[in-house]
Amino acid sequence: MRGRNGRMAAVLAAGGAIAAVAGCAPVQGSGSAAPSDVTHYQSAVSSSRAAEAAAAAKSACASWRSGYEVRRVATRAMVDYTHTPDANWDGIVPTLNGNVAAVTTESGKLPAVIATAQPSPNVHTLLIDYKTKLDAYGSALKADQAARGEGERSWVKAEPAERALLNAEDALEGACG
Description:
single chain; mainly alpha; 80% helix; elongated
């Protein structure tokens, strides 16, 4: 029995040494922080989160603009073609296909941009809405191309989809500054 007590004492002594080395020594004080310290900490956390959201929004907006500007060139080329005197479906195919490809490319990059914007709720929500409108616009372009309507019936689906997309673009421009 005596050997057992000796071993127990050695275990307790080793445990005390480990606790001391690990920094588990008692700390003086009440265990409560002063209200001013709590307020300062909460303010620092809030400022940090606001800075993170602002940085995320700035990064997401810059990424969105780079894809948007490329696609807008293709969209503008297609729209400009429709205003030429001899515009027809056969003639617009290259610019229409270019626009559809640019929409598809931009839409494919948006999930990563949306993820970047996560800490900024406003920009995040606007990007999701924009992607929805962009995808609808791409689908509408394909539907109108397949229908090959004439005159006022040429862009039955694409025109309202483009108007909705332009509104989403304006909202993002406003948020991105």
